[in-house]
Amino acid sequence: MPIELEVKTLRTASQLGMNLTEAQEERLTTLQALDEFRRAASQNSLLISEQRRRWHDRTIRKTTFSPGKWALVYDSKFGYFSGKFKTRWLGPYEILEVFDNGTVKLKAFGDERKDVVINGFRLRLYNPALSKEEWIERLGVPSPSLISEPEL
């Protein structure tokens, strides 16, 4: 951090009526104060960066992948092109195996031969669309055949 500080020279000290030892002592005290100010500023900077790091780590949600689930893969070629309605996700792929280093082994949907190992940061869990029967089951609504039609 650059700081401007005026350090008096011997010539200006003699013009102010100070002798050599007083000027040297004043210069040393000023330099010590500057060093303390710099040290306090660096401590504050470290404290703020630590607080930001803790806040950022607290907001990140860890995604856990497990075999048998489905995932989408981020297509990085669309990072350079703007397109509102273009999807940046490929897939879905079935998760076959999850490794300790964060990589995931995927199998393409409907393809028996294609097994790909991809970094887990490029994946997003895929939630397939529900059928009408599954929606009714999840909502707890009685079966549509039991619901009577309104009379007209």
Number of strands: 5
Mean pLDDT: 81
For the largest beta-sheet, the strand count, sense and barrel status come to: 5 strands, antiparallel
Tell me the radius of gyration.
34 Å
Shape descriptor reads: elongated
Helices and strands, in order, run as: HHEEEEEH
- Architecture of the largest domain, CATH level 2? Roll
Separation, N- and C-terminal Cα atoms = 81 Å
CATH C-level of the largest domain: Mainly Beta
Taken as a percent bin, the fraction of beta residues is: 15-25%
Order of strands in the sheet with most strands? 4-3-2-1-5
Tally of helical runs: 3
Structure at a glance:
Keywords: Mitochondrion. The protein is α+β, with helices and mostly antiparallel strands and 152 residues long.
What does this structure look like?
This protein has helices at 10-15, 20-59, 132-139, and strands at 70-74, 89-98, 103-108, 115-119, 123-125. The protein is α+β, with helices and mostly antiparallel strands and 152 residues long. It has two domains: 10-59; 70-127, SH3 type barrels. A five-stranded antiparallel sheet has the order 4-3-2-1-5, with no helix packed on it. β3 and β4 form a beta hairpin. The chain is elongated. Keywords: Mitochondrion.
Fill in the keyword field for this structure.
2 domains, SH3 type barrels, single chain, elongated, mitochondrion, about 150 residues, 5 strands, alpha+beta
